[in-house]
Design brief:
The protein is of the alpha+beta class and 215 residues long. It has six helices and ten strands, in the order E-E-H-E-E-H-E-H-H-E-E-E-E-E-H-H. A hairpin with a 5-residue loop joins strand 9 and strand 10.
Length: 215
């Protein structure tokens, strides 16, 4: 049995006991929140915090812990860095469409954003990251959106959940598996095969937090 790696994010909703977070409900009951401004155009999306520190207006809502696989995280596109230069392609596409109109008009930011997100979505990405700087006190820098549904609740089986920003383990499953196998997989996920002694204190702190011993 292999240990699966996840990254933990947080979603807040006015609805309780949700089995999944569905982007189809985008825009409901978020008036006044900065999430609405970030999602004013383009594909319907659900909003998540990479750090469990939501905006004041949503702190009274129901809190959901969501576990993203490493593959999902890899498919979240950096909105500002735009590594594949999709925004330029989107602007060009909008300009070409407007050039066919009988009257001249310049593309609006709304039109460019819609085309930009559509290109990202069509290339198989599952969501967007809005990090424009390393300042995580800015809520936008700790916000991601997903285009697809995501189930709530903990993963099944053996897993390690990591902090989205730092990649450090913050939670381990308590699946009833053979202890040596747990330790082997845990250390493997941390990438510590070559020098486990170097990270002894980190492992000790993690074990203590999760009330789990690898001795």
């Amino acid at each position: 049995m292999q240990t699966r790696k996840y990254f933990k994010v947080f979603h807040y909703s006015h609805r309780c006991q949700l089995d999944e977070i569905d982007p189809a409900f985008y825009g409901t009951r978020v008036s006044g929140h900065s999430e609405l401004r970030k999602g004013s155009a383009g594909i319907k999306k659900s909003f998540y915090y990479t750090i469990d520190d939501p905006e004041f207006l949503v702190r009274t809502h129901y809190r959901y812990e969501i576990y993203l696989s490493a593959k999902w995280k890899e498919k979240i596109y950096d909105y500002f860095d735009d590594p594949k230069k999709f925004r330029a392609a989107a602007k060009s596409k909008v300009e070409q469409a407007l050039a066919e109109l009988p009257y001249r008009t310049d593309p609006t930011e709304y039109q460019i954003q819609e085309a930009y997100e559509k290109i990202i979505f069509d290339h198989g990405f599952v969501g967007l990251r809005y990090k424009s700087s390393e300042d995580l006190s800015d809520v936008h820098n700790r916000t991601i959106t997903l285009f697809r549904k995501k189930r709530t609740g903990k993963p099944n089986g053996l897993y390690v959940a990591c902090d989205y920003e730092t990649g450090k383990p913050i939670e381990i499953s308590r699946a009833p598996v053979e202890r040596n196998l747990v330790r082997e997989n845990f250390i493997g996920i941390l990438g510590l095969f070559k020098s486990p002694e170097k990270h002894k204190e980190e492992i000790k702190e993690f074990d203590k937090k999760n009330q789990f011993s690898f001795n």
